[in-house]
Amino acid sequence: MYNIPEYIGKYCTWNNRRSGGVTVFIADWINIESTDSLNMNTAEGIHVQMRISGKLMSIIGIYRSHDSEQEHYIRELDSVLKATADSDIVCYSGDININLNAFEADD
What we know:
Helix content: 10-25%
Number of helices: 1
CATH architecture: 4-Layer Sandwich
Radius of gyration: 15 Å
Structural class: mainly beta
Distance between the termini: 39 Å
Order of helices and strands: EEEEEHE
């Protein structure tokens, strides 16, 4: 895959699609404790856990295909986020393919 000096790339791809894939780049001085592909039907993703200054941090990178059912994705995402409850810090980032402009400000 891609190489960026001073970073370690962790990758996840769907094998049955022509596009997609998720990459999380972590500075090479950070000790990565675990890397797991997420078990989701509506998206592909990766969960990387590391410890920084004694704190357990989870980074979740997700790509949701535009043709997956939105409500099913939200339920799956809720389960993924609950599984990171042991982490002190959680960072979720990705392409969720949901039109956020379609929601009211208080939704």
